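User: Structure tokens for this complex, please. No commentary.
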Amino acid sequence: MATTNATISINSDISSYPMRINNSMTMLKAGTCHGLQETTGLRHKKFTSTTAAVIVEHDELTDDKAHKVYIRNVSSSKENFFYVAYNASAAAATTAETIGKLYGGDWMLMPYNGNVNIVVASSTTETQTLEYMVFADGIVAAAG
Amino acid sequence: MATTTASVSISSSDLNPGSNLSINASSTLMKAGLTTGLTQLRTGYESIATGTEFRLGNKATEMVGDAHNIASWVYICNKATDDTYYIDWGIHETMIGRLYAGDWMFIPWNASDDAAEIEIEAQVGAQTIEYAFFASDFVLPTASA
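Assistant:
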């Protein structure tokens, strides 16, 4: 059994009392105490178009499981961003399933059921790079 | 200017045999398209009953300005301890993932319209969540007359 730990730390002075969140989790298979054992690997991809693109294909993953998806906009611009969406079609912006926007340097980590693709769309034709990885609770072997 | 930083560290010595995994990232949470920090914060610690989809946080119309340009952030942690318990989370009627007992999540949320609300539903049993919204555009609901 593999052990994968994820720790988040958030510090903020928005309020007059300092706010700190520190939390760790071990990524487990759905409904069990066993660690996730599979991954699609850590990927880096450059985007030079605003055309939406699938970065996580759900049919590679077992449905209704406890996958985790990590995504980071490696670029530095705070003006440009990627839309991130959970969508069957090739659209990531202004759809009902748009989750949010990742500006330069932003990252996210979310649980993912593996039922529908994860799609992104860059806001610019300037080069932006995404780093992403799926921690999988079941990868479906490709059909021959 | 307020400063909110969010950092993550993901590590495993045995997920990829022969290769240690170590991912570290940190970002300062900014207003959409700007280099000024977010200024609003909402936190909560709530029990969630099973059998009902609940809205977590504001609707887009409860925020100022062009909601689709909002760069807000959401942190949620499932405080349950039973490994079989989880919370379905999603955008409006579309469930995206399962937040199992002990898990946390951190996502950007642009709240494009009222139908882009964050929804959660406890599965298996009632659970408690801890959450925080970091935003720039919340407004309080108007009081009833």
